[in-house]
Amino acid sequence: xxxxxxxxxxxxxxxxxxxxxxxxxxxxxxxxxxxxxxxxxxxxxxxxxxxxxxxxxxxxxxxxxxxxxxxxxxxxxxxxxxxxxxxxxxxxxxxxxxxxxxxxxxxxxxxxxxxxxxxxxxxxxxxxxxxxxxxxxxxxxxxxxxxxxxxxxxxxxxxxxxxxxxxxxxxxxxxxxxxxxxxxxxxxxxxxxxxxxxxxxxxxxxxxxxxxxxxxxx
DNA sequence: GCTCTCACATGGTGCGTGCT
DNA sequence: AGCACGCACCATGTGAGAGC
Length: 218
Hints:
It is built from five helices and 13 strands. The protein is globular and about 45 Å long. It has 218 residues and is α+β, with helices and mostly antiparallel strands. It has a single domain, classed as Endonuclease/exonuclease/phosphatase (Deoxyribonuclease I, Chain A, 4-Layer Sandwich), CATH 3.60.10. The protein has helices at 14-27, 41-50, 111-127, 155-167, 203-208; strands at residues 3-7, 31-35, 55-59, 68-72, 77-83, 87-93, 99-106, 131-137, 147-148, 170-173, 182-183, 193-194, 197-202. Strands 5-6-7-8-13-10 form a six-stranded mixed beta sheet. It has a four-stranded mixed beta sheet with strand order 1-2-4-3, with helices on one face. It binds a DNA duplex (20 and 20 nucleotides) through residues 9-10, 12-14, 16, 38-39, 63-65, 109, 150-152, 154-156, 184-186, 190, 192. This is Endonuclease/exonuclease/phosphatase domain-containing protein. It comes from Gossypium barbadense (Sea Island cotton).
């Protein structure tokens, strides 16, 4: 089972849709989670059709901010449990009959909204009975090694993120290749790279899927 | 003096719309 | 379809202030 997650920073323009289709051809994922779609949910059904995906559930962007979509291939059994502007929560059933929980998460940068988003994850945690995989654009890092260039992130913010992961009993999945998942696309010493996107998983997923690997694509 | 946080200005980027 | 423009969003850079 392959899950592809992409922080697309807007999926409304044709070039980005072309890039998405290319990613699907190269990686052939069973499930795709897109965040920062920056478009209305209705638009996603058109993109789902163009990408030849069987199912689609989208959350509209808040004007030009946020927006998420979960799409899945024919034959993959995905049931949406709940959603908000911060997350899409689903149960995925594998061919062998086993199931796991998959939550796509979009973290906020604004402090008050950030706490709302963490509360949402806490609520999801209370309803999870199976292995739990959370893929998030958390907009947060755990320590200084997860940011290269630019100003240092506040210590309080990094500690808060670590505490939340501890509280939810989620473990960070290190990527097999690469480290940073986001950059500001600037040249030379103005370039800033951060590890804002990551998979975090519950302990039982670690036991059930010991060969689970996370790659940075591109 | 050092570190951290906050507010504001700035620049890069993407979407929506209108025009050709 | 391609282009230009305006608008909106977001991260960065800078300076000021607070706390140690």
